[in-house]
Design a protein that fits this description.
- It contains 12 helices and 12 strands.
- The chain is an alpha+beta fold and about 475 residues long.
- It folds into 3 domains: about 120 residues, no CATH class; about 150 residues, no CATH class; about 80 residues, no CATH class.
- The strands form 2 sheets. A 7-stranded mixed β-sheet has the order 6-7-8-9-10-11-12, with helices on both faces. A 5-stranded mixed barrel has the order 1-2-3-5-4.
- A hairpin with a 5-residue loop joins strand 4 and strand 5.
- Helix 3 packs antiparallel against helix 10 and helix 4 packs antiparallel against helix 5.
- The radius of gyration is 31 Å and the shape is globular.
- It starts with about 25 loop residues before the first helix and ends in a 19-residue tail after the last strand.
Protein backbone atom coordinates (compact mmCIF):
# COMPACT_ATOMS: atom_id res chain seq x y z
CA UNK A 1 0.00 0.00 0.00
CA UNK A 2 1.51 3.26 -1.03
CA UNK A 3 1.21 6.25 1.22
CA UNK A 4 -1.08 9.11 0.22
CA UNK A 5 0.26 11.97 -1.81
CA UNK A 6 2.03 14.43 0.43
CA UNK A 7 2.42 18.19 0.49
CA UNK A 8 5.37 19.43 -1.54
CA UNK A 9 8.14 21.09 0.51
CA UNK A 10 7.35 24.70 1.20
CA UNK A 11 10.90 25.93 0.91
CA UNK A 12 13.96 26.05 3.12
CA UNK A 13 14.12 29.74 3.73
CA UNK A 14 14.11 31.50 7.06
CA UNK A 15 11.11 30.71 9.20
CA UNK A 16 9.06 33.53 10.73
CA UNK A 17 8.25 33.51 14.43
CA UNK A 18 5.83 30.78 15.43
CA UNK A 19 3.20 33.21 16.66
CA UNK A 20 3.24 35.44 13.61
CA UNK A 21 0.11 36.10 11.54
CA UNK A 22 -0.07 34.41 8.16
CA UNK A 23 -0.05 36.68 5.16
CA UNK A 24 -2.97 36.27 2.81
CA UNK A 25 -0.70 35.34 -0.08
CA UNK A 26 0.97 32.59 1.96
CA UNK A 27 -2.36 31.14 3.06
CA UNK A 28 -3.70 31.22 -0.49
CA UNK A 29 -0.60 29.51 -1.86
CA UNK A 30 -0.80 26.81 0.81
CA UNK A 31 -4.49 26.19 0.14
CA UNK A 32 -3.74 25.82 -3.54
CA UNK A 33 -1.17 23.08 -2.91
CA UNK A 34 -3.07 21.07 -0.32
CA UNK A 35 -5.08 18.08 -1.48
CA UNK A 36 -7.49 15.78 0.31
CA UNK A 37 -5.66 12.78 1.74
CA UNK A 38 -2.33 14.52 2.27
CA UNK A 39 -0.68 14.10 5.66
CA UNK A 40 0.97 17.08 7.30
CA UNK A 41 2.74 17.81 10.56
CA UNK A 42 1.33 20.47 12.86
CA UNK A 43 2.99 23.07 15.03
CA UNK A 44 -0.02 24.68 16.81
CA UNK A 45 0.52 28.32 17.69
CA UNK A 46 -2.81 29.30 19.24
CA UNK A 47 -6.08 27.60 20.12
CA UNK A 48 -9.07 29.79 19.25
CA UNK A 49 -11.59 27.09 20.20
CA UNK A 50 -11.02 23.39 20.93
CA UNK A 51 -11.68 22.66 17.23
CA UNK A 52 -10.26 25.85 15.67
CA UNK A 53 -6.54 26.54 15.84
CA UNK A 54 -3.80 28.60 14.25
CA UNK A 55 -0.97 26.32 13.27
CA UNK A 56 2.03 25.96 11.05
CA UNK A 57 2.29 23.09 8.58
CA UNK A 58 4.83 21.09 6.71
CA UNK A 59 4.74 17.73 4.89
CA UNK A 60 5.21 14.58 6.95
CA UNK A 61 8.92 13.92 7.29
CA UNK A 62 9.68 17.04 5.28
CA UNK A 63 12.99 18.83 5.63
CA UNK A 64 11.74 22.12 4.25
CA UNK A 65 10.74 25.13 6.28
CA UNK A 66 7.47 25.58 8.10
CA UNK A 67 4.68 27.67 6.65
CA UNK A 68 3.37 30.75 8.37
CA UNK A 69 0.47 30.30 10.76
CA UNK A 70 -2.80 29.41 9.07
CA UNK A 71 -6.24 28.86 10.54
CA UNK A 72 -7.51 25.27 10.46
CA UNK A 73 -10.68 23.53 11.61
CA UNK A 74 -10.16 20.19 13.40
CA UNK A 75 -12.62 17.31 13.20
CA UNK A 76 -11.85 16.52 16.86
CA UNK A 77 -10.82 18.74 19.73
CA UNK A 78 -7.13 19.53 20.11
CA UNK A 79 -5.63 17.42 22.93
CA UNK A 80 -5.18 19.27 26.20
CA UNK A 81 -1.40 18.93 25.96
CA UNK A 82 -1.30 19.79 22.28
CA UNK A 83 0.05 23.30 22.79
CA UNK A 84 2.21 22.38 25.77
CA UNK A 85 3.87 19.56 23.84
CA UNK A 86 4.90 21.94 21.04
CA UNK A 87 5.70 24.95 23.19
CA UNK A 88 9.34 23.92 23.54
CA UNK A 89 9.68 22.72 19.94
CA UNK A 90 11.80 24.88 17.72
CA UNK A 91 11.28 24.92 13.97
CA UNK A 92 14.94 24.34 13.34
CA UNK A 93 15.20 21.27 15.53
CA UNK A 94 15.25 17.80 14.03
CA UNK A 95 12.69 16.41 16.45
CA UNK A 96 9.41 15.23 15.06
CA UNK A 97 6.41 17.39 16.03
CA UNK A 98 3.87 15.87 18.33
CA UNK A 99 0.88 16.20 16.01
CA UNK A 100 0.14 14.78 12.61
CA UNK A 101 -3.06 15.33 10.62
CA UNK A 102 -4.77 14.34 7.40
CA UNK A 103 -6.34 16.92 5.10
CA UNK A 104 -10.07 16.19 4.74
CA UNK A 105 -11.16 19.46 3.10
CA UNK A 106 -9.47 22.54 1.65
CA UNK A 107 -12.45 24.72 0.75
CA UNK A 108 -14.12 26.84 1.97
CA UNK A 109 -12.21 26.08 5.20
CA UNK A 110 -9.08 24.04 5.77
CA UNK A 111 -10.25 20.98 7.73
CA UNK A 112 -7.73 18.61 9.35
CA UNK A 113 -8.19 15.26 11.05
CA UNK A 114 -5.68 14.33 13.74
CA UNK A 115 -4.43 10.86 12.88
CA UNK A 116 -1.60 10.15 15.30
CA UNK A 117 0.43 11.42 18.20
CA UNK A 118 4.12 10.86 17.55
CA UNK A 119 6.42 12.01 20.32
CA UNK A 120 9.41 9.95 19.21
CA UNK A 121 12.18 11.04 16.81
CA UNK A 122 11.77 10.46 13.10
CA UNK A 123 13.23 7.03 12.26
CA UNK A 124 16.34 7.16 10.12
CA UNK A 125 16.31 5.49 6.70
CA UNK A 126 17.51 1.92 6.81
CA UNK A 127 16.67 -1.64 5.91
CA UNK A 128 13.05 -2.69 6.52
CA UNK A 129 12.39 -4.17 9.92
CA UNK A 130 10.12 -7.04 10.89
CA UNK A 131 7.35 -4.55 11.66
CA UNK A 132 7.86 -2.36 8.57
CA UNK A 133 5.35 -1.76 5.78
CA UNK A 134 4.54 -5.00 3.96
CA UNK A 135 5.67 -7.28 6.79
CA UNK A 136 3.38 -9.82 8.43
CA UNK A 137 3.17 -7.74 11.59
CA UNK A 138 2.30 -4.63 9.60
CA UNK A 139 -0.35 -6.50 7.62
CA UNK A 140 -1.86 -7.81 10.84
CA UNK A 141 -2.08 -4.30 12.26
CA UNK A 142 -3.73 -3.01 9.08
CA UNK A 143 -6.25 -5.85 9.01
CA UNK A 144 -7.16 -5.23 12.65
CA UNK A 145 -7.73 -1.57 11.82
CA UNK A 146 -9.85 -1.99 8.67
CA UNK A 147 -11.51 -5.40 8.40
CA UNK A 148 -13.70 -5.43 11.56
CA UNK A 149 -15.48 -2.20 10.48
CA UNK A 150 -15.59 -2.95 6.75
CA UNK A 151 -18.97 -3.07 5.01
CA UNK A 152 -19.90 -4.66 1.66
CA UNK A 153 -19.89 -1.99 -1.01
CA UNK A 154 -22.85 -3.08 -3.15
CA UNK A 155 -25.32 -3.73 -0.31
CA UNK A 156 -24.31 -0.60 1.62
CA UNK A 157 -24.42 1.65 -1.44
CA UNK A 158 -27.84 0.30 -2.44
CA UNK A 159 -29.18 0.88 1.07
CA UNK A 160 -27.85 4.48 1.14
CA UNK A 161 -29.50 5.26 -2.21
CA UNK A 162 -32.87 3.91 -1.04
CA UNK A 163 -32.59 5.72 2.30
CA UNK A 164 -31.83 9.11 0.71
CA UNK A 165 -34.67 8.70 -1.81
CA UNK A 166 -37.15 7.84 0.95
CA UNK A 167 -36.04 10.79 3.10
CA UNK A 168 -36.40 13.27 0.25
CA UNK A 169 -39.78 11.83 -0.79
CA UNK A 170 -41.01 11.95 2.81
CA UNK A 171 -39.91 15.51 3.53
CA UNK A 172 -43.04 17.51 4.46
CA UNK A 173 -43.82 20.65 2.51
CA UNK A 174 -43.49 23.59 4.92
CA UNK A 175 -42.73 27.26 4.72
CA UNK A 176 -39.15 27.59 3.46
CA UNK A 177 -36.54 28.87 5.90
CA UNK A 178 -32.78 29.13 5.72
CA UNK A 179 -32.46 26.01 7.89
CA UNK A 180 -34.86 23.90 5.84
CA UNK A 181 -33.28 25.09 2.59
CA UNK A 182 -29.82 24.07 3.85
CA UNK A 183 -31.14 20.71 4.98
CA UNK A 184 -32.95 20.00 1.70
CA UNK A 185 -30.02 21.13 -0.44
CA UNK A 186 -27.66 18.93 1.55
CA UNK A 187 -29.85 15.87 1.01
CA UNK A 188 -30.24 16.60 -2.69
CA UNK A 189 -26.49 17.03 -3.15
CA UNK A 190 -25.80 13.75 -1.38
CA UNK A 191 -28.45 11.98 -3.44
CA UNK A 192 -26.97 13.35 -6.67
CA UNK A 193 -23.47 12.25 -5.63
CA UNK A 194 -24.65 8.73 -4.77
CA UNK A 195 -26.76 8.51 -7.94
CA UNK A 196 -23.79 9.59 -10.06
CA UNK A 197 -21.56 7.02 -8.39
CA UNK A 198 -24.08 4.23 -9.03
CA UNK A 199 -24.67 5.33 -12.63
CA UNK A 200 -20.96 4.88 -13.37
CA UNK A 201 -20.96 1.24 -12.21
CA UNK A 202 -20.98 -1.54 -14.79
CA UNK A 203 -24.19 -3.26 -15.88
CA UNK A 204 -24.83 -6.99 -16.28
CA UNK A 205 -24.54 -6.66 -20.04
CA UNK A 206 -21.18 -4.90 -19.80
CA UNK A 207 -19.78 -7.61 -17.56
CA UNK A 208 -20.42 -10.21 -20.27
CA UNK A 209 -18.06 -8.38 -22.66
CA UNK A 210 -14.37 -9.19 -22.00
CA UNK A 211 -13.07 -5.70 -22.67
CA UNK A 212 -15.73 -3.96 -20.62
CA UNK A 213 -15.26 -6.51 -17.83
CA UNK A 214 -11.53 -5.71 -17.74
CA UNK A 215 -12.34 -2.00 -17.58
CA UNK A 216 -14.78 -2.53 -14.70
CA UNK A 217 -12.25 -4.61 -12.79
CA UNK A 218 -9.57 -1.94 -13.23
CA UNK A 219 -11.95 0.63 -11.68
CA UNK A 220 -12.67 -1.47 -8.57
CA UNK A 221 -10.41 0.73 -6.41
CA UNK A 222 -7.71 -1.87 -5.79
CA UNK A 223 -5.24 -0.15 -8.12
CA UNK A 224 -5.98 3.49 -7.25
CA UNK A 225 -2.55 4.21 -5.76
CA UNK A 226 -0.87 2.64 -8.78
CA UNK A 227 -2.91 4.85 -11.11
CA UNK A 228 -2.00 7.90 -9.02
CA UNK A 229 1.69 7.06 -9.41
CA UNK A 230 1.25 6.70 -13.18
CA UNK A 231 -0.65 9.99 -13.33
CA UNK A 232 2.19 11.72 -11.48
CA UNK A 233 4.55 10.63 -14.26
CA UNK A 234 2.15 11.11 -17.15
CA UNK A 235 -0.86 13.40 -16.49
CA UNK A 236 -2.73 11.72 -19.36
CA UNK A 237 -3.45 8.79 -17.01
CA UNK A 238 -5.39 11.04 -14.64
CA UNK A 239 -8.46 11.22 -16.88
CA UNK A 240 -9.89 7.92 -15.65
CA UNK A 241 -9.21 8.48 -11.95
CA UNK A 242 -12.61 10.07 -11.35
CA UNK A 243 -14.27 6.76 -12.33
CA UNK A 244 -12.26 4.72 -9.83
CA UNK A 245 -14.52 3.31 -7.08
CA UNK A 246 -12.17 4.14 -4.21
CA UNK A 247 -11.62 7.66 -5.53
CA UNK A 248 -15.37 8.22 -5.73
CA UNK A 249 -15.87 6.91 -2.18
CA UNK A 250 -13.13 9.24 -0.94
CA UNK A 251 -14.87 12.15 -2.67
CA UNK A 252 -18.19 11.17 -1.08
CA UNK A 253 -16.53 10.91 2.35
CA UNK A 254 -15.07 14.40 1.91
CA UNK A 255 -18.51 15.77 1.00
CA UNK A 256 -19.97 14.32 4.21
CA UNK A 257 -17.15 15.73 6.33
CA UNK A 258 -17.62 19.18 4.85
CA UNK A 259 -21.37 18.95 5.44
CA UNK A 260 -20.72 18.15 9.10
CA UNK A 261 -18.72 21.36 9.44
CA UNK A 262 -21.55 23.35 7.77
CA UNK A 263 -24.33 22.11 10.07
CA UNK A 264 -26.39 25.21 10.92
CA UNK A 265 -26.16 26.27 14.55
CA UNK A 266 -29.84 25.97 15.40
CA UNK A 267 -30.90 26.02 19.06
CA UNK A 268 -31.15 22.66 20.84
CA UNK A 269 -34.53 21.05 21.55
CA UNK A 270 -36.58 22.87 24.21
CA UNK A 271 -34.80 26.19 23.79
CA UNK A 272 -36.69 29.04 22.05
CA UNK A 273 -35.21 30.32 18.82
CA UNK A 274 -34.61 33.77 20.35
CA UNK A 275 -32.74 32.47 23.40
CA UNK A 276 -29.58 34.36 24.11
CA UNK A 277 -30.72 37.49 22.23
CA UNK A 278 -31.51 40.80 23.87
CA UNK A 279 -35.29 41.39 23.69
CA UNK A 280 -36.48 44.25 21.52
CA UNK A 281 -38.22 46.63 23.93
CA UNK A 282 -39.17 49.14 21.27
CA UNK A 283 -42.26 47.16 20.26
CA UNK A 284 -43.19 46.05 23.79
CA UNK A 285 -46.18 47.82 25.40
CA UNK A 286 -45.11 50.30 28.04
CA UNK A 287 -47.12 50.59 31.27
CA UNK A 288 -49.14 53.77 31.54
CA UNK A 289 -48.45 56.12 34.46
CA UNK A 290 -50.43 55.04 37.53
CA UNK A 291 -53.45 57.18 38.43
CA UNK A 292 -53.69 58.92 41.76
CA UNK A 293 -55.04 56.60 44.42
CA UNK A 294 -54.89 53.51 42.20
CA UNK A 295 -52.18 50.85 42.54
CA UNK A 296 -49.82 50.61 39.60
CA UNK A 297 -50.49 47.87 37.07
CA UNK A 298 -47.63 45.33 37.05
CA UNK A 299 -45.68 45.00 33.84
CA UNK A 300 -47.14 42.21 31.72
CA UNK A 301 -50.37 41.92 33.74
CA UNK A 302 -53.66 42.13 31.80
CA UNK A 303 -55.42 45.48 31.97
CA UNK A 304 -58.70 45.72 33.87
CA UNK A 305 -61.77 45.41 31.57
CA UNK A 306 -63.76 48.50 30.82
CA UNK A 307 -67.19 48.71 32.40
CA UNK A 308 -69.82 47.08 30.16
CA UNK A 309 -67.25 45.62 27.74
CA UNK A 310 -67.47 41.85 27.01
CA UNK A 311 -64.71 39.75 28.54
CA UNK A 312 -61.75 39.07 26.26
CA UNK A 313 -61.13 35.42 25.34
CA UNK A 314 -58.37 33.73 27.26
CA UNK A 315 -55.09 33.36 25.36
CA UNK A 316 -54.31 29.84 24.12
CA UNK A 317 -52.23 27.69 26.40
CA UNK A 318 -48.80 27.05 24.89
CA UNK A 319 -46.40 24.31 25.77
CA UNK A 320 -43.16 26.18 25.40
CA UNK A 321 -41.23 23.44 27.15
CA UNK A 322 -42.36 20.78 24.64
CA UNK A 323 -39.72 20.29 21.92
CA UNK A 324 -40.95 20.99 18.41
CA UNK A 325 -40.04 19.15 15.24
CA UNK A 326 -37.92 22.08 14.11
CA UNK A 327 -36.03 21.99 17.40
CA UNK A 328 -35.25 18.29 16.93
CA UNK A 329 -34.08 18.74 13.35
CA UNK A 330 -30.43 19.72 14.07
CA UNK A 331 -29.85 16.61 16.18
CA UNK A 332 -31.55 14.42 13.55
CA UNK A 333 -29.46 15.92 10.75
CA UNK A 334 -26.25 15.41 12.71
CA UNK A 335 -27.15 11.80 13.47
CA UNK A 336 -28.09 11.16 9.83
CA UNK A 337 -24.86 12.63 8.48
CA UNK A 338 -22.77 10.71 11.02
CA UNK A 339 -24.52 7.46 10.06
CA UNK A 340 -23.87 8.05 6.36
CA UNK A 341 -20.24 8.91 7.11
CA UNK A 342 -19.83 5.60 8.96
CA UNK A 343 -21.32 3.72 6.01
CA UNK A 344 -18.98 5.38 3.53
CA UNK A 345 -16.01 4.80 5.84
CA UNK A 346 -17.02 1.14 6.09
CA UNK A 347 -17.06 0.80 2.30
CA UNK A 348 -13.61 2.39 2.11
CA UNK A 349 -12.36 -0.08 4.71
CA UNK A 350 -13.77 -2.88 2.56
CA UNK A 351 -11.72 -1.71 -0.45
CA UNK A 352 -8.60 -1.32 1.71
CA UNK A 353 -9.12 -4.83 3.12
CA UNK A 354 -9.15 -6.21 -0.42
CA UNK A 355 -5.95 -4.30 -1.15
CA UNK A 356 -4.32 -5.75 1.95
CA UNK A 357 -5.37 -9.26 0.96
CA UNK A 358 -3.75 -8.67 -2.42
CA UNK A 359 -0.47 -7.92 -0.63
CA UNK A 360 -0.62 -11.13 1.41
CA UNK A 361 0.77 -13.39 -1.33
CA UNK A 362 2.79 -16.56 -1.30
CA UNK A 363 6.17 -16.56 -3.11
CA UNK A 364 5.85 -17.16 -6.83
CA UNK A 365 2.19 -16.13 -6.93
CA UNK A 366 0.46 -12.84 -7.72
CA UNK A 367 -3.02 -12.31 -6.36
CA UNK A 368 -5.70 -9.62 -6.55
CA UNK A 369 -8.93 -9.65 -4.55
CA UNK A 370 -11.76 -7.22 -5.17
CA UNK A 371 -15.47 -6.59 -4.80
CA UNK A 372 -17.08 -5.33 -7.99
CA UNK A 373 -20.57 -3.84 -7.55
CA UNK A 374 -22.71 -3.85 -10.68
CA UNK A 375 -26.18 -2.67 -11.64
CA UNK A 376 -29.16 -4.94 -12.26
CA UNK A 377 -32.84 -4.13 -12.86
CA UNK A 378 -33.58 -5.22 -9.28
CA UNK A 379 -30.78 -3.20 -7.66
CA UNK A 380 -27.06 -3.50 -7.01
CA UNK A 381 -25.30 -6.86 -6.88
CA UNK A 382 -21.75 -7.74 -5.89
CA UNK A 383 -19.19 -9.81 -7.78
CA UNK A 384 -16.36 -10.97 -5.52
CA UNK A 385 -13.28 -11.97 -7.48
CA UNK A 386 -10.03 -13.68 -6.54
CA UNK A 387 -7.58 -13.46 -9.45
CA UNK A 388 -4.29 -15.33 -9.26
CA UNK A 389 -1.32 -15.89 -11.52
CA UNK A 390 1.12 -18.68 -10.79
CA UNK A 391 4.50 -18.68 -12.45
CA UNK A 392 5.50 -21.55 -14.68
CA UNK A 393 7.13 -24.40 -12.80
CA UNK A 394 8.88 -27.59 -13.83
CA UNK A 395 7.90 -28.83 -17.26
CA UNK A 396 5.17 -26.23 -17.63
CA UNK A 397 6.30 -23.31 -19.78
CA UNK A 398 3.15 -21.24 -19.36
CA UNK A 399 1.82 -19.25 -16.44
CA UNK A 400 -1.44 -20.44 -14.93
CA UNK A 401 -4.22 -17.93 -14.43
CA UNK A 402 -7.14 -18.70 -12.16
CA UNK A 403 -10.22 -16.72 -11.17
CA UNK A 404 -12.70 -17.50 -8.41
CA UNK A 405 -15.98 -15.64 -8.62
CA UNK A 406 -18.67 -15.45 -5.95
CA UNK A 407 -22.03 -13.84 -6.59
CA UNK A 408 -25.68 -14.19 -5.63
CA UNK A 409 -28.10 -13.96 -8.57
CA UNK A 410 -31.86 -13.54 -8.13
CA UNK A 411 -32.82 -16.63 -10.22
CA UNK A 412 -29.86 -18.91 -9.58
CA UNK A 413 -29.04 -18.07 -5.98
CA UNK A 414 -25.48 -18.20 -4.58
CA UNK A 415 -22.96 -19.17 -7.22
CA UNK A 416 -19.27 -20.05 -7.07
CA UNK A 417 -17.34 -20.07 -10.37
CA UNK A 418 -13.76 -21.34 -10.72
CA UNK A 419 -11.95 -20.61 -13.99
CA UNK A 420 -8.44 -21.84 -14.78
CA UNK A 421 -6.55 -20.85 -17.94
CA UNK A 422 -3.24 -22.44 -18.92
CA UNK A 423 -1.74 -22.61 -22.37
CA UNK A 424 -4.94 -21.07 -23.80
CA UNK A 425 -7.06 -23.95 -22.47
CA UNK A 426 -9.92 -23.21 -20.09
CA UNK A 427 -11.22 -25.36 -17.26
CA UNK A 428 -14.49 -24.09 -15.77
CA UNK A 429 -16.49 -25.27 -12.76
CA UNK A 430 -19.81 -23.74 -11.70
CA UNK A 431 -21.12 -24.68 -8.25
CA UNK A 432 -24.57 -23.41 -7.27
CA UNK A 433 -25.68 -23.26 -3.66
CA UNK A 434 -29.30 -23.88 -4.63
CA UNK A 435 -30.32 -27.27 -6.24
CA UNK A 436 -32.77 -25.60 -8.63
CA UNK A 437 -30.08 -23.14 -9.72
CA UNK A 438 -27.69 -26.01 -10.40
CA UNK A 439 -30.25 -27.73 -12.63
CA UNK A 440 -30.80 -24.56 -14.64
CA UNK A 441 -27.07 -24.19 -15.21
CA UNK A 442 -26.74 -27.81 -16.34
CA UNK A 443 -29.48 -27.30 -18.92
CA UNK A 444 -27.54 -24.42 -20.50
CA UNK A 445 -23.99 -25.86 -20.42
CA UNK A 446 -24.10 -26.59 -24.16
CA UNK A 447 -25.04 -23.00 -24.95
CA UNK A 448 -22.27 -21.75 -22.65
CA UNK A 449 -19.68 -23.96 -24.35
CA UNK A 450 -20.78 -22.73 -27.78
CA UNK A 451 -20.44 -19.10 -26.71
CA UNK A 452 -16.95 -19.68 -25.32
CA UNK A 453 -15.78 -21.45 -28.45
CA UNK A 454 -17.23 -18.65 -30.56
CA UNK A 455 -14.71 -16.38 -28.84
CA UNK A 456 -11.91 -18.76 -29.86
CA UNK A 457 -11.51 -20.15 -26.32
CA UNK A 458 -10.51 -23.79 -26.12
CA UNK A 459 -12.70 -25.40 -23.45
CA UNK A 460 -10.85 -28.29 -21.82
CA UNK A 461 -13.59 -29.02 -19.26
CA UNK A 462 -16.92 -27.54 -18.26
CA UNK A 463 -18.75 -28.75 -15.18
CA UNK A 464 -21.80 -27.66 -13.17
CA UNK A 465 -23.22 -29.02 -9.94
CA UNK A 466 -24.78 -28.35 -6.58
CA UNK A 467 -22.65 -27.65 -3.54
CA UNK A 468 -23.61 -25.67 -0.43
CA UNK A 469 -21.39 -22.66 -0.35
CA UNK A 470 -19.17 -22.19 2.68
CA UNK A 471 -18.43 -18.90 4.34
CA UNK A 472 -15.24 -17.32 3.00
CA UNK A 473 -12.24 -17.58 5.31
CA UNK A 474 -11.05 -14.53 7.25
CA UNK A 475 -8.80 -12.20 5.26
CA UNK A 476 -5.75 -12.85 7.45
CA UNK A 477 -4.48 -16.20 8.70
CA UNK A 478 -2.90 -14.85 11.90
CA UNK A 479 -5.16 -14.00 14.88
CA UNK A 480 -6.75 -10.56 14.56
CA UNK A 481 -7.46 -10.28 18.28
CA UNK A 482 -4.62 -9.68 20.67
CA UNK A 483 -4.83 -11.80 23.80
CA UNK A 484 -2.46 -9.57 25.72
CA UNK A 485 -4.11 -7.41 28.38
Amino acid sequence: MSEPTRLPPSGSGANPPIGGRALDSTANALTGRLQVGMQVELMPARSITPELIETRLRPVGGTGGWTNSVRAQLTTALPANGLQATANERPGSGAMPTLRAEVVATSPTLVLKLVSVADRPMPMPGPPTASGAGSREWLGQQFRQHWPESRPVAATLDRIAVQLADEIAGTPITAPTSATNTETNGRLQLQRAVTTLIAQLATVTELTDPEQLATAVSRSGVWLESFLAQAAIDPAHSNGLRLDLKAQLLTLAQRLRVQETRTPGLPPPGVPAAAGRRPDMSAAPQPSPPQTGAPPTPVGAPAAPRPGAPPEPAPPVTTGDKPTEAAHRPAQDTHRTASLARDVEGMLKQVVTKQLQSLDNTPGQTQWLLELPFRTPSGLQALEADIRREQARGDTQHDTWSMRLRLDLPKLGPLNVVLTLCNERLNASLQAGDPDGAEQIKQHLGDLRARLEAREIQVASLHAGHRPLERPPPPFADPLVREQA
